[in-house]
Design brief:
The protein is of the alpha/beta class and 405 residues long. Strands 4, 5, 7, 8, 9, 10, 11, 12, 13 and 14 form a ten-stranded mixed beta sheet that branches. It is globular. α5 packs parallel to α6 (185-203) and α9 (269-277) runs parallel beside α10. The chain has helices at residues 40-55, 63-71, 80-101, 105-109, 128-140, 185-203, 219-229, 248-255, 269-277, 293-305, 321-333, 349-353, 379-383; strands at residues 3-11, 17-24, 29-33, 117-125, 145-150, 180-183, 208-212, 236-238, 260-262, 283-284, 310-311, 340-341, 359-361, 364-366, 394-397, 402-403. It contains 13 helices and 16 strands. It folds into two domains: 3-104, Enolase-like, domain 1; 108-370, TIM Barrel. The structure holds D-mannonic acid (CS2) and magnesium ion.
């Protein structure tokens, strides 16, 4: 079962996706997601110029050896571009192995640990009222966990919120230069506790609540926020502070029992290691696309299990449905699965380009038993949506200082 062709496609149905297709001598093929938002063509160049030539002629069944070849075999390890290229190849090889075995990937990982995968939906709003209206709609649709993000009064735009009333899926679709946003921690603090106070009054105590701080706070500010939110019993507070210095979380943890989650920008197990083994977090939010694929996430998940940390993969709209499928297989298998972020499957374009049969019922996702990953990539449909250069925004404090977006 020899790898005899690998192709890379970039399409932009509202936002850019980089898709890899690995084809074997037997004609069986697999697909993988290599999307790094705002840096798409860097991954394409790495794959086409440096990775693909080394893989042609190798045995497609040697998933572990190929992963190690791409990780250990290069002097320049880690990094989002490198690990996304590795991830896409890895996902495609798991897809191929499943198809050849006639089994869905979760069976190859060890089988089902649960009937379905619990999801958390996003409720966003331009004010607290609108956020809670949207949360109530999700609760009525059966979601048991909901992320609440509300615009901060006094700031033009707030991350994770419906900027100019556009659907979340349309954001980031066509920004030829990075838009600039302003941040004020003071203004945010004035809003955030009220949001959760009113959420509990309106939504009751059964629903699980999540909030993404998007790394805007210093560790001591995060510690204070965690403490202030304790009465509202969050499932977790996400990306409270940056953790390039993983010790930041020691400080946060000393002060609050609000559960903590981080990991969507992490690329390897090493980025998570200290946080996990020191039990400084409760959920690890790595994405298969950005942290080296199924092979790498399986390893992180097993390591996390030893320290009571649960898997809660990133599920933003800039991860393609192929990544979502990879997460579904990991989530279905992982004994220490927590929750999966879910923003819907998009309008008709996305399901047409990436057809799949994942079912959503009452806030739970059920993977199909199709062999492999169970998601396709329609090259013809994708052609109608050519690549557009596009960036995430950047963030500045009110005095103009660069801040974390
Ligand atoms: C967010 C993301 O879903 C999340 O948790 O943090 O929407 C994030 O902003 C984007 O994935 C950035 O690429
Ligand atoms: Mg996030």
């Amino acid at each position: 079962m020899i790898i005899n062709n690998i192709e890379v496609f970039v399409c932009c149905p509202g936002r850019n996706f980089v898709t890899v297709k690995v084809t074997t001598s037997e004609g069986v093929y697999g697909v993988g997601d290599a999307t790094v938002n705002g840096r798409e063509q860097a991954v394409v160049a790495l794959l086409e110029e440096h990775v693909i030539p080394c893989l042609i002629g190798r045995n497609a069944h040697d998933i572990e050896d190929i992963w190690q070849y791409l990780y250990r075999g290069v002097y320049w390890r880690k990094g989002p571009i490198n690990m996304a290229a590795t991830a896409a190849i890895d996902m495609a090889l798991w897809d191929i192995k499943g198809k050849v075995a006639g089994l869905p990937v979760y069976q190859l990982l060890g089988g089902k640990s649960r009937k379905g995968v619990g999801l958390y939906a996003h409720a966003n709003g331009e004010d607290i009222e609108q956020t809670l209206d949207n949360a109530q709609k999700h609760a009525a649709a059966g979601f048991k966990a909901i992320r609440l993000q509300s615009a901060v009064p006094g700031l033009d735009v707030t991350y994770g919120v419906l900027g100019d009333k556009k659907d979340y899926f349309e954001m980031q679709g066509n920004r030829p230069l990075p838009p600039e946003e302003t941040w004020s921690t003071q203004k945010y603090f004035n809003m955030i506790v009220e949001l959760f106070d009113r959420a509990r009054s309106r939504l009751g105590n059964e629903i699980q609540l999540v909030h993404d701080v998007h790394s805007r706070l210093t560790p001591i500010e995060s510690a204070r926020l965690g403490k202030l939110l304790e009465p509202y019993n969050l499932m977790f507070l996400e990306d409270a502070s940056m953790a390039e210095n993983q010790d930041n979380y020691k400080l946060i943890r000393q002060h609050t029992t609000t559960p903590l989650a981080i990991g969507e920008t992490y690329n390897t197990i090493w980025d998570c290691k200290d946080l996990i083994q020191n039990q400084l977090i409760d959920y690890i939010r790595v994405a298969a696309t950005h942290a080296g694929g199924i092979t790498a996430l399986r390893r992180i998940t097993d390591f996390a299990a030893m320290f009571n940390v649960k898997l809660a993969p990133h599920g933003a709209p800039d991860l393609s449905p192929i990544c979502f499928a990879a997460h579904m297989h990991l989530n279905t298998w992982a004994p220490n699965f927590g929750v999966q972020e879910f923003v819907g499957f998009g309008d008709q374009d996305l399901p047409q380009i990436f057809p799949h049969n994942t079912e959503i019922v009452d806030g739970m996702a059920y993977i199909s038993d199709a062999p492999g990953l169970g998601v396709e990539f329609d090259e013809e449909a994708a052609k109608a949506f050519p690549y557009k250069r596009s960036y995430l925004p950047i963030s500045r404090l009110e005095d103009g200082t660069m801040w974390n977006w």
